Amino acid sequence: MPLLVQNKRIGRLTSTTELFSKYSHLKENAKVFSSKSLVTVEPKCLLYVQQREFAATTPADHSVSVIGSGDATTCHLVVLRHTGSGATCLAHCDGSSTWTEVPLLVNAVTSLSHHAKEGRLELHLVGGFVDDAYTSHKLSLNILDMNDIVTDGIHRPVVYGIGVNIKTGEVFPASFPYRGPAEDVRSARTFTGGQMTEVYDSSKEQVRVSPCRWAPNRDIAFWLAADDDTILQYLSTSPYAEPPHFVNQIKSTIRFLLDHPNADMLFPGGQPLLFHRTEQGEWERVSLP
């Protein structure tokens, strides 16, 4: 698959340092993007993607206007869009299995673009920063200084979250007061090692949480009594740069796992959890026959 910059095919590159050296406008575009005002996305139009999840849809979708994801520190947010069909995919990648994840994202977009007579794939990559452990470097490449700011001597990301308007293709810095549906079970799946998964069926306009499993582990109750600093040091890849709600989210996920030691009970008959958009704009559980 050829790589185009400003509609011109470029040859083989040895590093992203070389890429940004030859095409300095990419850095300028990143500066412009990171300086944009943060948009708070309301739940009624939102399809939220958690860590190790991806979702794809088209402009014809009546249930979703924005796909978004947040809380990315060392993680990276990937937007892939077909210019002909408008099919758009957003993924929240943490480096757990990047090489197997990329084909999933490409297939998600191309499978929704068969009817398009022309068009190309546009890639947007946001996230990472100059963290102390160089976790971001291991995940992506040399783009990190463009999303890095130093506050009180501590490196932090400039942009933690993004949204993409599926009608126009606009990508923008964003925050999300709502991270559902089924936020707890989706967080528990990732916390216990679940791999990248697709969470939306655009043909039915439904959020789809596939069955998952985890082993009962009462030992994790230890973390509920741990102080914030301990949780940050041991359960975060970027302890000095996490958003303020990180510790509460971790504890909420642990409580959920303790309350539900057997995930099978959450998926009756081994069926996925399905949610559709109501006329009021809320995600509502679909009752299975």
Automatic annotation (TrEMBL):
GO terms for biological process: ubiquitin-dependent protein catabolic process. Coiled coil: none annotated. GO terms for molecular function: protein-N-terminal asparagine amidohydrolase activity. One of its GO terms (cellular component) is nucleus. Transmembrane segments: none annotated. It comes from the Eukaryota. This is Protein N-terminal asparagine amidohydrolase. It comes from Electrophorus electricus (Electric eel). The lineage of its organism: Eukaryota, Metazoa, Chordata, Craniata, Vertebrata. The gene is NTAN1.
